[in-house]
Write a structure and sequence with these properties.
about 55% helix, Beta-Lactamase, 3 domains, alpha+beta, 11 helices, Alpha-Beta Plaits, about 325 residues
C-alpha cells in the first residue's frame, strides 16, 4: 500500500511540475507539444515499469520464503514424528539421567531391558557395570545386561544413555573366534635314548603306549594328530578346543610322566601351541617358537601362544 501511495505522489508531483513549467516552454507548434507529451508519457511508463519490476521481484521473494517456510513446517512435523518413533518404537534403549546418575526418564525399550518401573531409581542399583562406566565418563563401550549384549553410547553433556542390542553380532563374532585354528607341535623328549637299551618288542610296546596316550588325548578334543618325524607330532584343532585343553591344564603331561615313572625312563613331552588369525605358514612359525621356548625352559611342559593374550605355561613347576 505504501508503494502505491509513493507512486501516486510521484505522479502528481510530475504533473504539477509539467503544469508549472509549461509557460516557460516555447511551443511553436502542435508537433512540439506532442513531443513534450510523448516525453512525459515515456518518463511515466519508465517509472511504472521499474515499479512493477521491483514489486514483482519482491513478490517472488515473498513467495519463495513462504514456500520454504511451508516446506520446513512439513519437514519439522515429519522430523518430530521420526524423533517420536526413535524414542518410543525403534529397538534402542534410551535412559535420561540427572547429575546424581538417577534415571529420570526411560523409553519403552529401555524399560523392557531393565524394569518397567525404572524411572526414579539410581543407576547403580539398576546395573553396577553401567554405573561404573558412566561415572568414569566412558562414552562408548560394550556391556552385558542379563542375557544380551549391548553397545552403549553415553552423552555426558546431555546425561543420556543409548543402548543398542548387538547380541547376534557378538554371537557371530564369538563363533568366528572359536573356529580360529590352533596348531600344536609336540616333542617326545629323550624317547630314542630311553628306547636304545631295550629290545625291539619292548621299544615297540613302550613307544606305542606313549603314542596311544597322546592320540587318546587328541581325540578327546576332536583334534587332528599326525606324526611327521621321530619323536615329533603335529596337532591341529580349534581355539574353542584349545580353551578346553587349558581348562584341563593339559593332563596329557601327567599321563606321560606316569608312563615314564612306571617304566623308569626319562621321557617327557614338550608342546608349543599357537592360535592366531593368520595364514598357516605364519601360524606354524608361532607354534615352532612356542615349542622351542618349552624346550629352553627344560621341557616337560606346554607353552600356549594365543593372539592378543599373554603367553601361558603349563607343566613342570611353571603353571601360569
Amino acid at each position: 500500500m505504501k508503494r502505491w501511495l509513493f507512486l501516486g505522489g510521484t505522479f502528481i508531483l510530475l504533473v504539477v511540475s509539467v503544469i508549472l513549467y509549461i509557460p516557460f516552454f516555447e511551443l511553436a507548434s502542435g508537433r512540439q507539444l506532442l513531443s513534450l507529451i510523448f516525453m512525459m508519457a515515456s518518463i511515466i511508463i519508465f517509472f511504472a515499469a521499474m515499479y512493477v519490476s521491483l514489486n514483482y521481484q519482491a513478490a517472488q521473494k515473498v513467495r519463495t520464503l513462504q514456500n520454504r517456510l511451508s516446506m520446513w513446517t512439513k519437514l519439522s512435523y515429519h522430523v518430530n514424528q521420526v524423533g517420536d518413533e526413535v524414542f518410543n518404537e525403534l529397538p534402542i534403549g534410551i535412559l535420561a539421567l540427572d547429575d546424581q546418575f538417577e534415571v529420570k526418564w526411560a523409553n519403552p525399550h529401555a524399560k523392557s531391558i531393565f524394569d518397567p518401573k525404572i524411572a526414579g531409581k539410581p543407576l547403580k542399583d539398576i546395573h553396577q557395570g553401567l554405573y561404573q562406566a558412566v561415572e568414569t565418563n566412558k562414552t562408548s563401550f560394550t556391556m552385558q545386561i542379563k542375557q544380551d549384549t549391548f553397545d552403549v553410547t553415553y552423552r555426558s553433556e546431555l546425561k543420556f544413555l543409548y543402548l543398542f542390542n548387538v547380541t547376534e553380532r557378538e554371537q557371530v563374532k564369538n563363533r568366528y573366534m572359536e573356529q580360529i585354528p590352533a596348531l600344536a607341535i609336540i616333542y617326545l623328549d629323550n624317547l630314542d635314548e630311553a628306547l636304545g637299551s631295550m629290545d625291539v618288542s619292548e621299544q615297540s610296546s613302550l613307544k606305542g603306549e606313549y603314542l596311544a596316550v597322546v592320540s587318546d588325548w587328541a581325540n578327546k578334543y576332536d583334534a587332528f594328530l599326525k606324526p611327521y618325524a621321530d619323536e615329533r607330532l603335529m596337532l591341529v584343532t580349534y581355539r574353542k578346543k584349545l580353551y578346553d585343553m587349558i581348562t584341563d591344564k593339559f593332563d596329557v603331561l601327567d599321563k606321560i610322566r606316569l608312563i615314564s615313572t612306571q617304566n623308569q625312563v626319562r621321557v617327557s613331552i614338550s608342546m608349543g601351541i599357537a592360535s592366531w588369525d593368520v595364514d598357516y605358514e605364519e601360524l606354524g612359525i608361532y607354534a615352532q617358537n612356542a615349542v622351542e621356548l618349552a624346550e629352553k625352559r627344560g621341557g616337560d611342559q606346554v607353552v600356549v601362544n594365543i593372539q592378543d593374550q599373554k603367553i601361558q605355561y603349563f607343566g613342570a613347576k611353571n603353571d601360569a
